[in-house]
Design a protein that fits this description.
With 287 residues, the chain is of the alpha/beta class. The chain contains 9 helices and 9 strands. The strands form 2 sheets. A 7-stranded mixed sheet has the order 5-4-3-6-7-9-8, with helices on both faces. Strands 1-2 form a two-stranded antiparallel sheet.
Amino acid sequence: MNTMRPKPQISLNLKILLCGFFLAILLFILRSNMQPSKKTSFLRNNIHSDEENSTPATCTKLPSSLSQALIHYSTSKITPQQTFSEISVSAKVLLKRSPCNFLVFGLGYDSLMWASLNHGGRTVFLEEDKSWIEQIQKKFPSLESYHVKYDSKITEAENLMKIGNEEKCKVVSDPRYTKCDLALKGLPADIYETEWDLIMVDAPTGYHKEAPGRMKAIYTAGLFARNREEGETNVFVHDINRSVEDKFSMAFLCDGYMIEEEGRIRHFTIPSHRTSLNDKPFCPPSK
């Protein structure tokens, strides 16, 4: 079963957090429509204005995606696998960067939360289980998700780590054309052609020996980030208490790019390598 799937427990703190984030997004939308001459910031309480606002206030309808999310998370007894503090790590970044392009490895009941926190942006989910996609899409048809086939197993992790340390895997390029066997090459073309601002690796399944594991998902996330035209990508890896997630994230997303660790989640900020292919190492020096 995919680790992005829900666990049956009630978390009051998590519900408060989710509702708070959705209300913050609503407040932003309302301010944007009611005060068009003012610049509004999520992370600051002060609002800077170049001129007085003379436009009458107008009512703004709550977007259906946010309405659905508020109702779902305020009434559901099933909470996301990530904890309050873990969700807060990526949610803070989303509040700064959304609307943006957000790629999530994994699909579950928390997927509606991620899509809603990225309101106005594009959030895409990559899932290994076709039947699970059908189940979630029936409940949340607005979510954009694609089926992914993985050809790896947890038992191959040690060998894949050796492959990843070969020089051909340190070359920054489009994952479709790299000679490195760690790259995922069967994704929809649009996934490779989009520059992702945030990437969450919370799948595929990785808790038993015959599971595909997240070795290739982690490596490919790092390649997506390095291969973007410019700027940087925030990459999050969940379940770093497990060996694969721990070792592969530090090896291919790099200790030198890690900026935060909270509970079972790590946050990396990886810059584009395309503008400096000749002088930027695959991994910077460790902190």
